[in-house]
Amino acid sequence: MTMDRLTRVPGLLYGGDWNPEQWPEQVWAEDVKLMAEAGVNLVTVGVFSWARIQPDAHGWDFGWLDRLLDLVHRHGVAVDLATATASPPAWLVRAHPELLPVTADGIRLEFGSRQHYCPSSPAYREAAVRLTRALAERYRHHPALALWHIHNEYGDHVQECFCPASAADFRRWLRERHGTVEELNRSWGTAFWSQHYNSFEQIEPPRTAPGPVNPTQLLDWRRFCSDALLALHRAEKAVLDEVSPGVPVTTNFMSMLKALDYWEWSRHEDLVSDDAYPDPADPRAHVNAALNYDLMRSLKGGRPWLLMEQAPSAVSWRPVNVPKPPDLHRLWSLQALARGADGVLHFQWRASVAGAEKFHSAMLPHRGTAARGWQQTVRLGAELRRLGEIAGSRLRGQAAVLLDWDSWWALELDDHPSARMRWLDLLRPWYAALHERGITVDFVPPTVEPEGYPLLLAPNLYLLDTATADRLTRYVRAGGRLVCGPFSGIADRHDHIHPGGHPGPLRELLGIVVDEHWPIPDGTTTTVRLDGIKADGTGPTGTEPDAAGPTGTEPDRTELHAEHWSEWIETEGAETLARYGSGALTGRPAVTRHRYGAGSAWYLSCHLGADVGRVLDLPLAEAGLSAELPGLPPGVEATRRHAADGTDYLFLLNHGPAERRVRLRTPGTALLTGTDLLTGTPTGDALTLAPLGAAVLRIPAAQERA
Predict the structure, then answer these.
(1) Contact yes or no for 537/599 (Cβ under 8 A)
(2) H-type alpha helices, 478-602
(3) DSSP per-residue codes, 189-225
(4) Residue 136 and residue 16: Cα distance in Å, rounded?
(5) The predicted structure's pLDDT at residue 5
(6) Which of 128, 236, 359, 483 lies in disulfide reach of 602, CB 3.0 to 4.6 Å?
């Protein structure tokens, strides 16, 4: 298996969660025959089977699982075998009630759902490791085994616990991080409010308190909680690596999840997998899905990833659970492939008849093979077989977005100038603007040099250390373009304010200083005038708002609207590209650009929401970035995957309700001749996409790219 193949299973992976313990064994035979009809080649088994595999503390029941794995293997279906540790059985909970999680208010949560455990519980960890070892030793050589699946959706229901075991584990973690209590006092700023500690034993988790809790304690708590869950995952993975080497290991992520630092988690994954549930009732859901998929692809440096779960139609856990219209499930499945996935799995294979998810859609619905959903299951399986050759190909973003979980956690702590500054609310308009313009994005962590990208976006860097600032400075000096959003460069890794004025260690690079933050009240906006600059971002340094453009023509004057946030800034070498047009900051700089070395650093001092694209057009033009396929109609998404042999695969996805005509030749570019793998037909100068339609074009290696 090459590094760019997810498992030993050839082609693209297709299937979903199968929970046969919910059914009589006579149903299993029907299931595997239908899987063959649908083209299923991988099923996830055992996710919630702990009580069936280990019915009590002293016994094991592997007979049913033996028969199950033998059955699927005979029918040519591979298995993603779960360790079943996401739902401890009742006998374990009653023997060790202390493993149940405790809330910040001191309430111990009860058995009867799932993920009912304290991440720091020794009893839970020992039992989970024992179960994992038993499974690995029994099935490591089974011919059906293609992938190990640890736990399920870490952090979905339980992200933290405040019990005594968690408190002890938190203190251990703090000793490792800070070394001495004196260093902890310095890092936490405990001189404030007389919070000084004489020993680590005096420290407790940040339970509910009379007033605001120390923000650095809260930040360290977020770090600890991510690490505590990761420690559980790593304990199980260590067993699998020891007992079952050579079989890849994953755990299913949950898209852009705040609770877990996926940069750190992905270091301990053999492959990245994700659970994605866009809302069919949201006409913009595909944009947020693309954002999440770009993150999944980026976590392993562009290697293919696996869509572990999606809903064939409706889910069961929203207030209103809207089904997917015809063709939407197909389109969204192809979108995952378009953004680097090498497999499309689902929750789940057969619809449940009992339990909390009995109204969740399935590949095989309650109505069985007569259902509309079954027909789409069969159709998608056939199409994925036709697309099998794309497995292992990659795509790379044209621009990069800097994502730092520490900064995300710190940004959203309490007692800031505005509670409206939320990371996803800042990120999504920036990403949507690039998506609308056909620019593919990679995410990068703050710990690496952002080399090779002509444009780097940082919608917010509230928490920023000098090492990251130095990397950004080197990037711009070498010719990169950095676009930095508001409320950035504020605090160091301990959430202490940088001295000397905001944006701290970015002040020289950005060529500005923030005199005062100026939040905008809810329900109001502030106008921003993008003046004195041409649409391509060119213009003389120092051009005044009312001056003519560089050729003597009238400059563009675009009025934008800022919401939630603005700043009183003063330039220190940067040129002003936009000024506030209303309110107390009227006439003051709002958007700046600083030429620095061979590159440039841009600063947006306000939250422009959906208007941010009008500003981002300027650095995009300066960086020479344009759409993967120019001239796309509205609502059409295009990405291009590249194979090692030079073959390209161009995905064209129509997310709109109307038919769209896509030109494959634009002025000054070569004709993109190829074959649509979905239909087997060669392309001409253009093609037509039906509403919610798609095409996947194989473009030969020798053809010049547009």
Answers:
(1) no
(2) 507-510
(3) TTTGGG---SSGGG-------SSPPPHHHHHHHHHHH
(4) 21
(5) 82
(6) 483
Q: Provide CB contacts within 8 A for 235, sequence distance 6+.
A: 125, 128, 129
**Can you state the angle between helices 285-298 and 328-338, rounded to 10 degrees?**
30
User: Phi/psi of residue 267, each to 5°?
Assistant: -65, -20
Q: Is 50 exceeded by the pLDDT of residue 86? A: yes
For residue 348, say if its preceding peptide bond is cis, omega within 30 degrees of 0: yes
Residue 589: name the closest of 573, 603, 600, 578 by CA. Answer: 578
- CA 263 centroid distance within chain: 10
Query: Which one-letter DSSP state was computed for residue 552?
Result: S
CB distance 445 to 300 below 8 Å? no
Task: Enumerate residues 6+ apart whose C-beta is below 8 A from 345.
Answer: 13, 14, 15, 16, 17, 42, 44, 80, 306, 307, 308, 309, 310
| Residue range 314-352, pLDDT digits in tens | 999 999 999 999 999 999 999 999 999 999 999 999 999
| β-bridge mates for residue 568, sequence order | 516
Which tokens sit at 607? Answer: 């939250």
State pTM to two decimals. Answer: 0.95
pLDDT at 211: 93
The residue whose two tokens read 């499945």 is: 333
Hey, what are 554's tokens?
């009238």
Residues whose CB falls within 8 Å of the CB of residue 140, separated by 6 or more in sequence, listed in order: 243, 244, 247
pLDDT in tens, 595-614: 999 999 999 999 999 999 99
CB environment 89-103: b (16+ within 10 A), e (fewer): beebbeebeebbbbe
What string of DSSP letters covers 237-302?
HHHHHHHSTTS-EE-EE-SS-SSS-HHHHHTT-SS-EEE----TT-TTHHHHHHHHHHHHHHTTTT
Torsion of CA 624, 630, 631, 634, to 10 degrees: -90
The single-letter DSSP state of residue 118 is -
- The answer to whether the CB of 639 falls within 8 A of the CB of 338 is yes
Residues present in the chain in total = 706
The token pair that represents 474 in the structure block: 């080197």
Residue 189 carries which side chain, given as an amino acid letter?
A: G
Domains assigned to the chain: 13-91+118-158+247-390 (3.20.20.80), 399-623 (3.40.50.880), 636-699 (2.60.40.1180)
With pLDDT > 70 as the criterion, what percentage of the chain qualifies?
94
Q: Which residues are catalytic?
A: 153, 309
Q: Is the peptide bond before 503 cis (omega within 30 degrees of 0)?
A: yes
d(CA 248, CA 2): 12
Are the CB atoms for 256 and 276 separated by under 8 Å?
Answer: no
DSSP label at residue 531? E
